[in-house]
Amino acid sequence: MSTTRLLPTLWASFDRLQGEMDRILEGWGVDLPRQLALAATFPPVNVWEDADAFHVEAELPGLTQEQLHVAVTHRNQVTIQGERSGQEADKGRWHRRERGFGRFQRVLKLPAPVDADKVDAKLENGLLRLTLPKAEEAKPRRISVKGE
To answer: pLDDT tens digit string along 2-43?
Structure first.
């Protein structure tokens, strides 16, 4: 049998297996593979730096300031943690449940130390924006070159 004919058959088998797993887990109202994937990557973040600071943006729809905790530890590690409350289907049953809920924690290691006393954190419209100023020893320094 050629590889070209084998691949569609293989993918169809995987699709049937996934459908069967979904059917089995549906009885518990759980989309376990999806929840495990969400737990590993929630909240989704973007991290970048400029000469003076690291910047982190985290998507946290529906969360309030009271549900969030942000901390800097080890001088170069930022932790975002909190809890998203879930909703129960009291008078029905779930058909799909992709939005994760419960406690979460995301730990990001930055490539240089930050000044934890000057961190700025803002939550607006479900977007957490952190500005983590670099510690003085981590900032680039211009060295003047002298001639002969």
So the answer is: 555 656 677 778 778 877 877 766 655 555 555 555 555 688
Q: Give me the CATH topology for the region 43-88+97-138.
A: Immunoglobulin-like (2.60.40)
On the CB side of 133, how many CA atoms lie within 13 Å of its CA? 9
Task: Provide the 10 A C-beta neighbour count for residue 134.
Answer: 22
**In the chain, where are the structural domains located?**
1-30, 43-88+97-138
Task: For the full predicted model, state whether its pTM sits above 0.85.
Answer: no
CA distance 135 to 132: 9
Report the chain's C-alpha Rg in angstroms. Answer: 23
